[in-house]
Amino acid sequence: NAGVTQTPKFRVLKTGQSMTLLCAQDMNHEYMYWYRQDPGMGLRLIHYSVGEGTTAKGEVPDGYNVSRLKKQNFLLGLESAAPSQTSVYFCASSRLYGYTFGSGTRLTVV
Amino acid sequence: ILNVEQSPQSLHVQEGDSTNFTCSFPSSNFYALHWYRWETAKSPEALFVMTLNGDEKKKGRISATLNTKEGYSYLYIKGSQPEDSATYLCAFGETSGSRLTFGEGTQLTVNP
Q1: Alpha-carbon dihedral of residues A28, B100, A45, A37, nearest 10 degrees?
Q2: Is the pLDDT reported for residue A90 higher than 70?
Q3: How far is CA A8 from CA A22, A28, B91, in A?
Q4: Mean per-residue pLDDT of chain A
Q5: B43-63 pLDDT, tens digit each
Q6: Min CA distance, B80 vs chain A (Å)?
Q7: pLDDT of residue B13
Q8: What angle do CA A92, A89, B25 make, to 5 degrees?
Q9: A103/B93 touch (CB, cutoff 8 Å), yes or no
Q10: How far apart are CA A50 and CA A99, in angstroms?
């Protein structure tokens, strides 16, 4: 009963490097989300998807891209990492409301 | 950007104390109000989903109330235990879509 799985769990990047965070869910949920969590700022929505092949911008989308080619996967890409993107990233999925969260990816950009 | 506010930001209580926190949210376009419990180094876990004005939910020693007309929800913990130590998040859902807007959370520490 995996739920929502995020990979990797930790990563250190150099400024300017690129990477992709993977979120996979096995609950057949339509909706998927990427949030970042920073001290004193709570969870802020980066991008989200309401179904396979669709994506939309959230509150803080700049510097990130996403893709939802398969219903079960939602990828978050950083094309050119910046220190301001140091954060903990959470993926979540839902049928409509009632999120199931992944365990988070701690990313440090140096 | 929707404004979802939680107070207090942090709270320290002694084991056995009862406590409560507040979540305030926009009173227009209301669809649902969620409460999550978030332990350090883990992911948020759903506590309650409330959709109707006057809703009251209870799970063990934890309960929540909802007032959609004035835009607030209270979370109560009766007889706090050290294992209740966590950050409690509320999240507001609008009628316009599935995404939730989260508050910053109330960090509860229960001292033995």
Answers
A1: -100
A2: yes
A3: 7, 22, 26
A4: 94
A5: 899 999 999 999 999 999 999
A6: 24
A7: 96
A8: 65
A9: no
A10: 13
